[in-house]
Amino acid sequence: MAMAMASTASTLSWSSSSWVHSFGGNFNEAYKPTDRRTASVILAQKKAKKTRKVILKEDVEYLGKTGQLLEVKAGFYRNYLLPMGKAQIVTPILIKEMRMEEERIEAEKNRVKEEAQQLALIFETVGAFKVKRKGGKGKQIFGSVTAQDLVDIIKAQLQRDVDKRIVSLPEIRETGEYIAELRLHPDVTARVRLNVFAN
Question: At what angle do helices 147-158 and 92-126 cross, to 10 degrees?
């Protein structure tokens, strides 16, 4: 019986070792990647990021402002932004259109600024605008000169409409020469001289 067990054990050990040798000898060698394709397949099995690059069509609270490029989770885009019409997937054509729109807006801003600079030059080269007021004692005048008075004078002399909200005047309660500022553009302010005299 002992002899039969020894022969069976030697047969098993021989068959298992021959099985291992048929695969290349060592178990560790059998599982090593041998070429690049195998390695790339293993890398491709990583979990993919599920995000989308989108551009916002309108302001979204806690997310961003109109025209902003963002990367958001695919589910958030699919379930909220897309059905509500708040975002659009970024495409090369869309990016090109955005650049063209930005260039158009920038050109318009430059044009408005240049017009404001030309208007400021006109206001500053005109000289002093004359304002008549009923006189009192000494240099005192009755009433005061307001922004609306200056707007009316500019309209009469230069045929230009100016909004009275852009006019900044010092307090004028007596005759003399004063400087008023017209804020024509955030970057352009015209300084206008006012000559106040009594009738």
Answer: 90
